[in-house]
């Protein structure tokens, strides 16, 4: 089943070699045995599409293919889906290998005077060209704090065992690249490659049940304890070499956080017990890593007091004939290991002792040993990971907190119906009770299960912070609409024993998610800064989380982007006027419709004055797998983020080419109006729920988190989460959240304003990023396939025409503004890859449409839903994104 290759025809010979080897092995694995018949049928479908490539009526050709698929049994369709899905997953892994190899070659060709773009060295050099000295740059790093945050959002469709086997395939392909391999070794590697592919094909690619939260915690720990643990010190080494200093001298600019086991918004499976066990799992994993790290240091640091001048260590527990009595560093390291095992050594004591060992080595005349790995790696890790690996955030919906406090007020006889009070009266009562030392509820007061759970969770947080103040990061309030939403949580924290002025009390962080809340955010921030119990302690920045997913679902692509951009700018000015700095926490997903795209470019496109050295962002679902499965890709991802953050945090970094804000607001309003007209059409939801594979996505066992915040009801637009919303549009190959409304907005702009907009498209980082992201999403749109989905629902022809008309408008105006012949003419390899993937992806779409048709006609076969879900997984692999 070699046939047509997928996506790499324009790339270089090394990538073609990898692809050729992979496809050859895939052909061998499927040419005989249990997969042979399915491979032949799949190839026949591909050949049918190849013969129709020259057809002027692509839609008719796809209808013909759909008819052929209708004649197949559900068992045949299921096997075809799984075969194509495995093929896409493997070819995606080849693409990752290609990225690694190209990055390596560019690193080898780079010089100190001409470093690789978006590297740490390039950022340092750019600042030097602006007149910054290395010492000034080094000092400025003290304000830099980058915190990627792992989440368990349900966008990774693959099982861990599938991911592991794909990594084995990649490893084998890398080994086969070696020149002058002995024939027998090369032959054995080829056999192993075929064997891995056969095992992949024979392994269930979807889970039979939903992941449970502890399993999600373990998945997050896998990346924290492997790739991330390894990569963070490497970034520190890069930075140290660029500055001509030692990694041990650098502040901790890169630290991780996690939501996994702490994010309970709409997920009843995250309980206080789960949060407690997550905290314990993080600490246990950290101690195990440190035990290995200290064993390595023990082997490494063998200097003897009989050779160099080192301070003596206690030898009370050492036999007089033991060699270590003359090796004080080994004794000190052994004492650290024992202390960590006994949990009598704190993170601060660990860091201080490692620094003291380094100091003693320098004093002994061994500076090169003192500043070499693994000691410097251990010092960097002690600052970045401590004994907790990643701080755990706690997130809950504002309405859950409000309901809990309303109940407590009623029990205490303070107020009946607190939740319905006007904002001003709520604020007065909250301030009064925060100042009152007595609790609201006596011990043993009967409370609802939900309120009891809220208080137990906060007690777990308090106990964790009492034990180690670095355990918990922030307490985040979803759907923050008012300042009182934050004071409600503050009062609940006081109820379980938190002291507001205690530095161990986690900050309460608002999450602004809707377009309306983003417009109101500057005023809300001013209110937050005016409240002593909410304003950060000392010089700590005020943290604000921005929701990219829900704002897009609420207002559409352009409106959400403009609202987020303007909110950051306005809030930065509010904070500056109050003498405070601000740290934005970007709740980005993997797709453009959820704030995805190139992270470094997004940082540099942030509004002038909004980046003060501190930034947080979420790493979600399949994005985690892509960015952190392979250490080389993780390194490049983090280096791009660190490079962009260094540049964006420089005092001289200004986006001076920003467009007149009135034009952006006009575009946002028109775009949002057109988008809302589309989704608020009375016929929209019946059409969408019948045409899209939304029910299949809802049933996909890829995470513990439900796809809807509501319980006990059918899916509706209002309660549907943003991830399955975006996921569905990707499956249908139309990607509405990544572009819809843009064409109408730009087309209606008067000529003089459009001319201004076009002039800024290449110089304004924000506009350029928005337009390039939209162009990339639109290049992946497949209108004939989208029409076939649309026609399967009521009034489908009408909705298909509206989508096609908007796509034509957006495409025409984008090409005009960007001065490009095609949407991806600046990226021909990606453009060609999309074209090469289309036939294979089309088959998966047509099978999915057929499964939806059979379900709608009442056909009852147990494999229909399984095939539908398998097709969801396959299309996600083909599109390289879920939600």
Q: How does the SSE layout of this entry go?
A:
Layout: H1 13-30, H2 36-51, H3 58-70, H4 74-109, H5 120-129, H6 134-140, E1 145-151, H7 160-176, H8 183-202, H9 213-243, E2 257-258, H10 272-300, H11 328-342, H12 347-363, H13 367-370, H14 375-384, E3 391-397, H15 398-412, H16 423-434, H17 449-467, E4 472-478, H18 484-495, E5 508-512, H19 515-529, E6 542-547, H20 548-555, H21 557-577, E7 582-587, H22 599-604, E8 614-620, H23 621-628, H24 631-649, H25 661-679, H26 684-691, H27 694-698, H28 722-731, H29 742-747, H30 751-760, H31 765-779, H32 783-790, H33 796-818, H34 828-856, H35 862-879
Describe this structure in words.
The protein is mostly helical and 883 residues long. Helices cover 60% and strands 5% of the residues. Among the domains are: 391-639, Alpha-Beta Barrel (TIM Barrel), CATH 3.20.20; 661-879, no CATH class. Helix 20 packs across helix 21 and helix 21 crosses helix 25 (661-679). It is globular and about 80 Å long. The chain has an 8-stranded parallel barrel with strand order 1-2-3-4-5-6-7-8, surrounded by 8 helices. The chain has 35 helices and 8 strands.
